[in-house]
Amino acid sequence: MMDEGTELSLTIAQIVQRLKATHLHSQIERQAKECLHRPEIQLESLKEDVRNFLKASGWERKLQNAVYRELHVQPLPSHPAAPPEHAKEPLAYMRKAQVNWEKRILKSLNSMCTELGVPLARKRPAVEQKELTNKWNEMGTDEPDLSRFRPVYAPKDFLEVLISLRNPNHDSSEEASAKSHWGLIQVPLHDRDIPQMREAYSELSLTTGQLGIDDHTHVPPDLFESEHTRIGKKVVNEQDSAAAQQYSRQGCPTGLRADLWALILNSTNEPEDVMHYEQLKAGVIHHDLLVDNLIYKDVKLTASNDDYYFVFEDFLYQVLLCFSRDTAVLEHFSYNSATPPKSYIQGKVGVEEFAVVYPPNGVIPFHGFSMYVAPLCFLYNEPSKLYSVFREMYVRYFFRLHSVSSSTSGIVSLCLQFERLLQTHLPQLFYHLREIGAQPLRIAFKWMVRAFSGYLSTDQLLLLWDRILGYDSLEIVAVLAAAVFAFRAENLMEVTSLTSAEAVLADLSTLKVMPLIQIFLFATVI
Amino acid sequence: MSVNTVPCTVKPTVTLQIGDAETDSSRPGVYVIDVTLPIGQTVNIQEISFKNYYTAYVSVRLLRRDGEGAAKWTTCLRNHCLMPSPHTEEGSQDYCSVYRQQMLIEPDNVTSVRLILRQPSSAWLNFSVEDIKIHPCLNEDSEWDIPDWLSDLTQVDQLCDLQGLPDPQTVSSSIQQMWALTEVMQTNQTTASIGRFDVDGCYDINLLSFT
Predict the structure, then answer these.
(1) Do A354 and B101 touch (CB under 8 A)?
(2) Which of helix, strand or coil describes residue B96?
(3) How far off is chain A from B148, nearest CA to CA, in Å?
(4) How far apart are CA A441 and CA A129, in angstroms?
(5) Which of A275, A506, B103, B118 has an alpha carbon within 20 to 30 A of B186's alpha carbon?
(6) Helix, strand or coil for residue B80?
(7) How many C-beta atoms lie closer than 10 Å to residue B117's C-beta?
(8) Looking at the predicted structure, is the pLDDT value of residue B20 above 70?
(9) What are the Rab-GAP TBC domain coordinates in residue numbering (chain A) (predicted)?
(10) A81–B95: do the CB atoms touch at under 8 Å?
(11) Cross-chain Cβ contact A170/B205 below 8 Å
(12) Of A465, A320, A460, A448, nearest to A396 (Cα)?
């Protein structure tokens, strides 16, 4: 709560500090130096002329995009007295819950280690390194014995943790009151109701054109689709990050989506990005990690079994194994409530010079993790580009889906919002499901944790993720979950058990997401 | 923002309630906290900082001593919102500051600060503010005490013969240049990591640690 002037200066200083470390900074410096030879640069108006040159040659736009990216991932400037843990998560009881959850995961991983007699990490012998290098593009053909490995946790274990979250200062006495909540999440986080969301998601309204609705075969393309695609091409030409994000709210045309998402995420494929990816690949070749087996197992259990994604199996290994070795991911822990696991090499426990993070990126994959990457394989076929886009999506959005935090895009908020929307707008359905022992969240949780990946058909999923990027929030995932229940409400009112409720909602592959969201937000009677 | 704080006593919280405090079953919605300075001392306040714990609104009143020595209570902040939605968690555990510029009156010659906390929602069992600190204005023209030994330093023109040593002026100017260079180097340091996750090529780990 500092005054605005100080807050702005602090933000600017932080962004400048971060951008100084990037390749873009040295590129712009070099450009500025080289342009001095140009005739239009006059000594009297040097500063102005160099600035104009950078603007005309597109470098200012690149800088703008980089600043825009920093604004996305930077935590808000905090009060000087606030400790760093407060920036990760302001509420003490949530921090505690996250710490306890992490302890459980670490214990589980340690016991897997000791039981199986497999080290957490080891250096590969030269022969093995050579073998892996040769097999790099076809790791899917390998059939290692993974039967002894089990996933560290599954979404339903995490759901139990969220259900047991309690604020010790919250009055949860049993008196029936207007605020009694029928759902499983019992923490009083703030969320938006439909009138507020109608304002926030105005681009999704009934009178605005959408991809996913107005590009239907029966709708003449002149009405919306052609013009929207023309604008999309212009946005890509201008290389404007902020414009791409705004554009994405109405959906991205299939042919432009890859470029638009890369623009929104400011994900480049410059030589230094390719080099970074090669460095990570070298990390995979040199060291074998226990989490690699968890990744293999996860891919084999989920993506490989999926009709849409099994063809991308090799890509998934190439991305996820490198992801585990990427120390750049550690930066996001300053605004993630989670903390990377720590260990000591050579058994020197407690000696700080021998302390390392495990895995190097601090993220322990869980059952279904590979589904965050799978849909992206439809957009990018170059591994370094695919990697770059995935990593940015993870540090902006996906990490919030599996950590305990009070953030509005965090999984706790999404679950609470889903339950509140259902209770407010479909009270009969909610009450009925509760009575038969089928709490709606138990069914919807697995959809939301994966941002619906693997549950919707791919084209529909990509339309949903367009809006996640466009609105820079995962809130739409909770809205869609409620909309799906609203859509199948009639069938759900007939069921008499949790199993039959799950059966009604088992197959979402025929759903069209944008009409569902639009109707739920803009046609619900309030 | 200054890190100087003024030593002060935070008195125990006083509840404001209608009816008998003991027999009334509902929880109080207003608390008053008095923060007093040691007797005789006054302060010109730059900032009052605290950590919120589920307080929705805070009002601040100041007891100021005017020219004649008489003390008077005035409100300097009225119903400042700490929690935009009192039934929900937003802002409930944030670190906050009230700055001089936000106050309705000049917070000078203050002997006592009264914080009036309000929490209209019945959702919370307790509410208060913690770690209350009063930051005084920095006095620009305060005299710094110069230690005695500084004035004993020899004057420049009293320096005796150099006996082959370089001229102190050239030495000091080149040292200044080097210092300027190191300052430039320091400000240009990048925060980019190298990307290595091993320690000298070794990444053999057995177990994760819990602390």
Answers:
(1) no
(2) strand
(3) 36
(4) 45
(5) A275
(6) strand
(7) 24
(8) no
(9) 251-472
(10) yes
(11) no
(12) A465
Residues B178-190 have pLDDT tens digits of 888 777 777 666 5
CB B51 within 8 A of CB B129: yes
Nearest residue of B to residue A280 by CA position? B195
Q: Is A12 exposed, middle or buried (0-12, 13-18, 19+ CB in 10 A)?
A: exposed
Best CA proximity match to B97, nearest among B193, B2, B205, B195: B2
CA pair distance B108, B103, nearest whole angstrom: 11
**526 residues of chain A, pLDDT tens digit each:** 456 677 788 888 888 888 887 888 889 989 888 888 888 888 888 888 888 888 988 999 999 999 999 988 887 778 888 999 999 999 999 999 999 999 999 999 999 889 988 888 888 999 999 999 999 988 888 777 888 888 889 999 999 999 999 999 998 776 555 567 899 999 999 999 999 999 999 999 999 999 999 888 888 888 899 999 999 999 999 999 999 999 999 999 999 999 999 999 999 888 889 999 999 999 999 999 999 999 999 999 998 888 889 999 999 999 999 999 999 999 999 999 999 998 888 777 778 888 889 899 999 999 999 999 999 999 999 999 999 999 999 999 999 999 999 999 999 999 999 999 999 999 999 999 999 999 999 999 999 999 999 999 999 999 999 999 999 999 999 999 999 999 999 999 999 999 999 999 999 999 999 999 999 999 988 7
Q: Which of A481, A344, A506, A406 is nearest to A89 (CA)?
A: A406
- A406 contacts chain B (CB < 8 A): yes
Which tokens sit at A93? 């009881």
What are B196's two structure tokens? 């290595």
Distance separating alpha carbons of residues B205 and A387, to the nearest angstrom:
26
CA distance B198 to chain A (A): 7
Alpha-carbon span A215 to A222, nearest angstrom? 10
Contact B207 A114 (CB under 8 A): yes
- Helices in chain B by DSSP H: which ranges? 148-151, 168-187
Chain A contact probe: residue of B87, B203, B209 with most A CBs at under 10 A: B203
Other beta carbons less than 10 A from residue A202's beta carbon: 13
Binary contact (B207, A354; C-beta < 8 A): no
Surface of A (250-279) touching B: CB under 8 A: 276, 279
What residues in A contact B124, CB-CB < 8 Å?
Answer: 169-171
pLDDT of amino acid B2: 43
Using alpha carbons, list the distances in angstroms from residue B69 to A4, A447, B105, B117, B136: 37, 69, 18, 29, 20
Instruction: For chain B, say whether A354 makes contact (Cβ under 8 Å).
Output: yes
Task: List Cβ neighbours of B74 (8 Å cut-off, separation of 6 or more).
Answer: B61, B62, B64, B104, B105
Instruction: Read off the pTM.
Output: 0.89
Please name the residues between 25 and 64 in chain A that touch chain B, using a CB distance below 8 Å.
Answer: none
Q: What is the pLDDT of residue A184?
A: 94
Please give the structure tokens belonging to residue A211. Answer: 């991809």
